[in-house]
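Please think about what follows:
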Amino acid sequence: MIHYHHQTEFLLSDQGLYSNWLQAVIQKEGKVLGELNFIFLSDEALLQMNKEYLNHDYFTDIITFDYCDGDLVSGDLFISVDRVADNAKKYHSEFLEELKRVMVHGVLHLIGYGDKHEDDQLIMRHKEDLYIKMFHVEH
């Protein structure tokens, strides 16, 4: 089950499309959907979490808390809507395209993909691109 929580003015429309897409991503990776919570909040709120839980004093687009159990993919994904908007401008992308990238990035982390090393970053980016294209094909 996928839940969406909004702590900003931003409201994700067509939540069912996103849920179906992310469930398909999880299935393509050979995993099973458990419970995912996407929480949309401000830069300041996510910065506070980054400081409190990770001891990082910088803005980020997503913080993912992993509650996976075996092949069951579960977690809380906190997304800064402000950071997504800034990144969309920075990378000359549409807001919703950048949001999809951040959402699938968090899910891929839960599935087990990393991004600390250059090789891992290349794999992560390839998977993100692949699955973002899948959103358009399936919906």
